[in-house]
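FW: tagging you since you asked about this chain on Friday. Here's the raw sequence from the shared folder, copied in full. Didn't touch anything.
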Amino acid sequence: MPIRRLLSVVALAVLPLLVGSHAWAAAARPAQVKASLVAAVTAIQPGQAFTVALRLVHEPHWHTYWSNPGTGLPTSLDWKLPAGWTAGGIQWPAPMILKDSKANIVGNGYEGELLLPVTLTPPADLAPGSTVELKAVADWLMCADVCIPGSATVTLTLPVQAGAPPADPAYGEKIRATVAGLPRADPAWTVSAARSAQAVTLTVKPAAGVTHTPQKLHFFSDDGLIAYDLPQVVKPDGRGGFVVTLPVSPTGPASPPQLIGVLTSENGWLPGNTLRGLRVVTDFTAAAPGTGAGAPPPVGTTAGGGLPGTLLLAFLGGLILNLMPCVFPVLGIKILGFVNQAGQQRSKIVAHGLTFTLGVLISFWLLAGALAILRAGGEQLGWGFQLQSAGFVYALAVLLLVFGMNMSGVFEFGLGATAAVSNAPWMQQPKSGYTDSFFTGVLATAVATPCSAPFLAPALGAALAVPLLESFTIFTVIAVGLSTPYLLLSLFPQAVKVLPRPGAWMETFKQFMAFPLYATVGYLIWVLAAQTSEEGFRSLLFSLVLIAMAVWIYGRWNAPGASPGRARFGVIALVVVGALGLWLGWPREMQAQATRPGEIAPVAWEPWSPEAVAKLRAEGRTIYVDFTARWCATCQTNKKLVFGSDAVLKAFAEKKVATLRADWTNKDPRITAELAAYQRSAVPFNLIWKPGQEAPVILPELLTPGIVLDALP
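HL: got it, structure written out here
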């Protein structure tokens, strides 16, 4: 097995142990939510569907979660029914806003007594006079100020009778009322939605003759498009309807075609409060461009009064970049340099400032030139385009991680390495540090470009649209603004003298300044999450761990005073482990590489949908369906073992197997319903549809290449 695959499989194999130990610890705690299974009827009629409900009773101040929880996890049911039975999915009542003890919104869910209805269908050959035990495993997350996983096996025994059974006296009416009040569309109200980049505008209009006035509206998004924890603005339209402004979540789906969710009213949508949640499923209409608050000016306009105003904004934007988290670590590093240089000649300090400024200027000019060349060639690129390269982002994250660990004291550059750098041909003045100042300016530019400060965006918009000379002028002014603080301190050395004298505080300050670097690494990892595949991002995270370990080994075995043999081991381990980390994590998926001759292409997954399955079956194709989720460690292990096998890849290619992936990482009602149709409520779940067969082959939870190959036609 290749080393990359082995490392990933080993790491994934450890995760279930960690999760299992957490679940064991949670099970030892007293439950704050009590679960039971209740039915709407007192008996079962053969072949006739009926409704049962998972009853959850919450202690005061405790809650569980809705299908889209915001935070937390939704309640689930794993049915253990006799042969021939089918169970539908949970039918979710309208949720409420969940808040903690400090009134912060923490999710969407329920409190008090809750009934979660489920439709069960028995087989038609049940014998009247017999009894049937219904069993399911319920899992939930219960939270107050802390969160505890909950689980219970719930059972219900009912007799079988030939005629229609009567309603259950204890829960029949409660379940009937719950089902009748489930969120649904109603002809008394019509909805429409328009979307901009930052918000969705939901318009609700009453039908003629409607006199009921809903109160305290709140929208709950099914797919996470709307931010669950941000305020929603509700305004009456003066005609009995409402306009609700919904903030878009930055982590929601990128471009969904519809708004899907539940719009609740405190006093219901109909008289008598019989319908608290209005089901919303509506296509988006186009929003008028530039009408949202804070909409940026059109590219090419010179905000602020022509070119002089744009240059002023450019200078202020570059100056404010010094306060951005991306740049502050670099400035903090140079502050230490100022303190060390306080006793030097003024001319040398000025030279450092000018060298730093030159590094910034040249970097900005190179970026401006690259943008100009690419724009002339027809590329539509924007500011920070270098961060669109996953390789660039990854390299920058590794660089800042290593730099941060150095500042934290994990390792120090040895005297031998320092001497080698000092004697390098490109080091013209070995003891001046001018090269360091120059490349610090380059680094400041590299990490500053993604941070669009408040006054910088319109200036950059103009720089990308105006003639070449004006564009270079704007970039130059931005560079001057970024380097001004350092330049001023170097031109006026008396300002340097007010800094504290060198002492023990410097080491403390140096270590403290590592944390902004780590924060920047975190930001870059967040960027990489959107640039690499699921498997590639996981390998990237493990690679950073290996690189950190390599640096730690170097610092441990190459400390000052170490013997030559020990120091050599530190250097060799740094190179070997660090290279392994780089090899594991480099984002190859983002590089357009064709499959080499003789190499087996990886599986190309398409999104699962019932329509896709029906279409491929009509074409007579063999179909492999993978129900999976990123948080499912077993799923990831299956994929590594099975689809890392050349034999499986070859068989899939030869048999032209269509591969569909049902990604359950985020809640998807259609996937939930499909799993329920097979009496499942968990992943992994894998199916193979063979041509000409009415039912699929259901594979076991734990897979091997042999199991999959044996199941293929």
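FW: The chain has four domains: 31-180, 189-286, 306-386+426-503, 606-711.
HL: agreed, and The chain has 20 helices and 22 strands.
FW: great, closing this out.
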